[in-house]
């Protein structure tokens, strides 16, 4: 399935457009996956970084009280940190801190996938372009185009992390488990 989804994104003339269409179709099914381990297995085994970005973006948009119209960028990922609530409905009695832990896990996964799509590897940095255009861009050694929202400061990050911590403290009313603290440090 993951290979087929990856090919479906790649064969289109606009991988960005096809990943949006595929993500829109898959998203309702992800909402209905009952176990965190199953959701994580699906997202972690996804071969298309671009499709993973789109799915995670939809998940976070779904969890925001006030969705944003920003294009996917580092600023939008920080927006999700500040405005997202617990992502998915749970049918079991999962502890509140585990829900926040899952949210931070997916936010880190979104950040890593976004970096892979835009910045990281020479062959992957043009994932939003078609295969033909991508080869030309690689041969020309063209730099990837960053979004306006990719220019964020360390102060922006620090303020959003502090805001998130205070919001989480209000909800949990207890000390953070070690997993939460580690994920916040990793994300930062």
Automatic annotation (TrEMBL):
Organism for this UniProt entry: Fregetta grallaria (White-bellied storm-petrel)
Gene Ontology terms for molecular function: SUMO polymer binding
Record gene name: Simc1
Designated name of the protein: SIMC1 protein
